[in-house]
Amino acid sequence: MARVTVEDCVDKIPNRFELVLLAAHRARAIANGSSITVAADNDKNPVIALREIADRMMAPDDMRETLINSIQKNTEVDEPEAVAAPLLPPDRRAPQLGRDDASSDTQVDVMTEEQLLRGLESMTPLEPSANIGSTGGPRERERDRDPRDRMR
Q1: Residues in the chain, pLDDT under 50
Q2: Domain architecture of the chain: domains with CATH
């Protein structure tokens, strides 16, 4: 790294190892399209990152947080607290099947697969279709009719 730029940054971030980590992370962010806060002056991304740190354009604490978040595999999710929202009193709650008074549950019919199939087979179609299962056109339908119907 550029010695002059590193010397300018050591007073902002005293630990050189941390400085390298933060500058490398910022350089990757710049390479991925993050906006630059200093003039580029035809410098490479690591030098731009160090210049941003030296000019205090990037807060070291913010850079640490983004670095830690980028490395973490499991992010912490704030769970809602139990006292965050008061529960409704039991008399104002909607009944839930199986979770409240059993006397308010309705009886659910139980049907076996065989009973369902027998019921479906016995159903008649609402609209008669002349061509269920056949691939032929009108002539084939005409041929299947009774010959006496053709004379009428």
Answers
A1: 1
A2: 3-71 (3.90.940.10)
